[in-house]
Amino acid sequence: MKVLIVGGGGREHAIAWKCSESSRVTKLYAAPGNAGIAEIAECVDISVMDADKLVAFAKEKEIDLTIIGPDDPLVAGVADAFTNAGLRVFGPAKNAAIIEGSKAFSKDLMKKYNIPSAAYETFDNADKALEYLETAKMPIVLKADGLALGKGVLICNNLEEAKEGVKTLMLDKQFGTAGDRIVIEEFMTGREVSVLCFCDGTHIKPMASAQDHKRAKDGDQGLNTGGMGTFSPSPFYTDEVDEFCKKYVYQATMDAMKKEGRDFVGILFCGLMLTPDGPRVLEYNARFGDPEAQVVLPRMKNDIIDVMEACIDGKLDEIDLQFEDKAAVCVVLASDGYPEHYEKGLLISGLENFKDKEDRYVFHAGTKATEKGVVTNGGRVLGVTAKGKDLFEARANAYEATKWIDFDNKYMRNDIGKAIDEQ
């Protein structure tokens, strides 16, 4: 079958790699793709937001399945354009992707259906938000309502920081219209865990757990990023936590969306906080996490095409989702200065070292193929993933593999997976 992947980041490279492993896939396309994806797929220069061109391309090439990777096209309704054209697509419709597209919607949904989360208030007026903060308990969390590249969350330790946060989001518009409305939320403490789930609108099957490192610098310091590295599984996600979440979070969310007339078909990303009072939902996303996909998909035993088609056909309950006992760690190689100012166009060397290496992977994120070779083309450049018999071995393998690659201004955190030392 012919498959089209919409997107061009590390997540999409991981999806493309997993699709290329399927015996069912005869031809793989990506729009727009990147230098790494180009090694296993034919890349076409079409924007992820250009629904008309994407649909026309899928019709012209007789694509059997389109997989939409990023959040922006899902929230904008690109999946709907494929469905309306009679094409098979994996990814939630616009009215379901709102679970990521609006923090206020998702918080209201959780409140209405008693899905455990933090207490909150929503504001579309900066003065009212500032007034509320005067009597709020600190620390506190401010969230831009709309999409902000995974960076629209501010943790404020005191009133002064919180007031500055409201100014940043609502008045200075650091994240554009995403900050027109904000959610002010109770600060929760505990371990963060990410669980990606396959969904068919009725049934939901969680994948192996993972943990992301969002801050730019070691020790969880610095600015929020799209993610600097991940490990899977999380040793803090116990069987007891899993049983609780299956009942009170995952299936409860599926049922809630169905009751709202918003059947969710695709990937539901549940960001969880394991608080002293039990698991709570931090946030939902409507797609694979990045770089969570880079550690979860290499551990998945199933043919991803079989699972995605079961989701589309409402037959996910017939799939026995399985993951390897091995652990995986991904270390993101970024351009120094990310997530603010960084240089592009720097030549990358050593990518060939990953060829035919078992349990070692390099997933391209911000890269571009040029006449002189593959160069950097974004803040997060590559994700180096390695597996091992446990998290300690996987982490050692991943950091060893980061030495195989070099480019000017190469930057990475040196403590990805450090939390496992504290278990």
Considering the chains and any ligands shown, give keywords for the structure:
423 residues; alpha+beta; six-stranded antiparallel β-sheet; 12 helices; 28% helix
What does this structure look like?
- The chain is built from 12 helices and 23 strands.
- It is an alpha+beta fold and 423 residues long.
- The strands form 6 sheets. Strands 12, 15, 18, 19, 22 and 23 form a 6-stranded antiparallel beta sheet that branches. It has a 5-stranded parallel beta sheet with strand order 3-2-1-4-5, with helices on both faces.
- Helix 2 packs across helix 4 and helix 7 packs antiparallel against helix 8.
- The longest helix is centred in the middle third of the chain and has 21 residues.
- The mean pLDDT is 96.
Major β-sheet profile: 6 strands, antiparallel
Number of E-state strands: 23
Could you report the average pLDDT, rounded to the nearest whole number? Answer: 96
Shape: globular
Which spans have pLDDT < 50 for at least 5 consecutive residues?
A: none
Gyration radius over CA: 21 Å
Oligomeric nature of the chains? single chain
Secondary structure: helix percent: 25-40%
- Give me the secondary-structure category: alpha+beta
The first-to-last residue Cα distance is 45 Å
Query: What proportion of the residues form beta strands (DSSP E)?
Result: 25-35%
The number of distinct helices, counting runs of at least 4 residues, comes to: 12
Briefly say what this structure is.
This protein is of the alpha+beta class and 423 residues long. The chain has twelve helices and 23 strands. 28% of the residues lie in helices and 27% in strands.
